[in-house]
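Hi there, hope your week has been kind to you so far. Do you reckon you could talk me through the fold, stretch by stretch? Thanks so much in advance, here it is.
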Amino acid sequence: MDLDNGDELYVMIHVKDALSEGIHDGDLIEMGIGEIDLNVRVSLSETEIEEGYIGLYRDIWTVHEFVNDSYVFIQPVSPSESIEYIKKKMLGNRLTKEQLELIMKDMGSRRLGMIENAYFLSTFFNPGFDDNELLWMTEGMANSGSTLSFKEFSKNGTVIDKHSIGGIAGKGITPIIVPILASAGLVVPNASTRAITSPAGTSDILEVVMPVALSSEQIVETVRKVGACMVWGGAVDLAPADDLLIHVERVIHLESFQKLLVSIVAKKISMGLTHVLIDIPHGRGTKVQNIEDVEMIEKGFKKLFDAVGIKVAFYIRDIKNPDGPGIGPNLEMIEVLKVLGQKEGHSEYLENTAADMAGKLMELCGSAQQGEGKDKACEILKSGRALKKFWEIAFAQGATEEVSEEKIRVGEYSTQVKAEKGGIIKMWSNREIKKITKYLGTPVIKESGIYVEKLAGDRVEKGDVLFTMYSSSQSRIDHALSVVNLNTLVELS
């Protein structure tokens, strides 16, 4: 059926069939077709579906392969014990390992609905979880779906990746780091997210030039062929409980520190990592507003990664700019290709940050001597090996052509925003950038976004162009202009 309910899996059955089975509108049922078993919600109709048939919504039949007129087994699902445990946590009580594992299992199998998931998410804020609960939940979340292994493709069993806690406009760092590391002979299975609170997630920008929704088998085959992948984690059954909680976070635009810890560590377990670099950007307009909070976050990650046997290093940076001048899927991919291709006018800020992080990871896993990692990363970039590896990864994931940055379209409608006074830029507000780009249509409208002309430390005069906005319609440009406040967007001295 050409229908989609968004966050939950739905099927449609005839009212008379529902009555005979004791099923009501919105009930959760177990559905079996061949070897596929799913927990789904029911929508009832007297006109849209024939008696004796079951209609599958788009988000089911686009993921699973079914044959029309197959026999379907359905039965009502009894309420899960997990609901009682969620209530228990909401009342301030501690949960056991078994209780948290069951919540994660039921969430991942969709036995819990979005309402129950939202209630559970609220317990991260109050009352919160102790260290043991966080560990048990992390392991349960990782085991709520598939886990992958790539050690057989590595000479010494080392499997690495980088992950940012996010909150920064611009996601061009990872698509530069991964091919650098893979060019150095390291195994780098990178699974990223789509945008949660930012103008574009890493997967949103990679999708401009390559498929990112790969199956588990395709991911393993890609890494076997080229030593790395850059995929959307939500397309495979990796920590599905986390993906469902992310759906709730997108609605409320809020994420707790403990949920951030559990989410990131669980995903790294499911990807079979041995080493990881955690990027912790801080500063006004980021997820970490105060430098005092950085140590707490670092300790939290270290404790949890140590507990699950993954070696971790941290990249702490004070944020004054977005990560690259282009903000929005297409604009960000243009900048990535400029850096990888070492094109004239490429972003030195983006290049330096990516090379430094890649170097830290090489030093962490012993691929480079301490203090020599960045030089090795820069050499790989300048030699063209990283660009070559980028396209090897893209083709292994299903890309059909190399796309030059000149061929990537930006929004048909644009306008320049100019400085109202002169001074030296002290910082850009990432929060304000995200607000503007949301009105422009990112990340859904990939051609939308902004291009920043001046960065922190640059002098501007009154009338200088600060940034250019792009979108698919003039009305979106006008809406974005209406929320631009240069006093809060750009701090001048």
